[in-house]
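hey m, so remember when u said the C-alpha cells were messed up on ur end? i reran from scratch. heres the input so u can diff it against urs
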Amino acid sequence: MNRKSLILGIFLVFVSGIISAQTFVKTSDLFKKPENNPQSGTLNIIQNPAIDTLISRYIMMNKNLADKNTYLGMAGYRIQIYASSNRNARDEANKARAEFMGKFPDILTYLLYAEPGYFKIRAGDFRTKTEATEIFLLVSQEFPNAYLVPDYINFPDLIKK
C-alpha cells in the first residue's frame, strides 16, 4: 500500500509540473502598451473566454511544430516531380532538378532526402491547392509523373518584385 501511494505521489508531482509548464495566453497580453507613453489610451477587449483558449492552443501547436522540425514555414502545397530510392537516385534527382529548372526557371525547386534512402524533388511554394493546380497543369505536360503533395512551404514574400 505504501509503495502504491509513493508511485501515485510521484505521478501527481510529474503531472503538476507538466501542467504548470504550459502557459496560458490571454488576448489582452498580446496587445500590451508601453507604460512610458502618456498619450497611449486603453484597449478593452470584450470577448468569449474560449477565444483565449483557442489562441493558447494555436500558439502551443506552432511552438511544438517549430521544436520538432526546426523548419519554419506554413502549410501549403508543392509539386513532386521525382522520387526514387535507387542506387543512383541522387544523380537521377539532380538530373531531374536540372531539367525542371531549365524548363521552369521561375519556380523554386527543393531536393529532399527521406529515410530509407529516398531522394525527392519538389517544386514551388503554393499556399492553396487551386494556386498549385494551375502550375501543376503546365508542369504535368513536361513531367507526366508529377503530382501535388501537401507540404510545409516557405513564407511568401511580402514585397512582390
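this time it looks ok to me. Residues 49-69 form the longest helix (21 residues). if urs says something different then somethings off w ur setup not the seq
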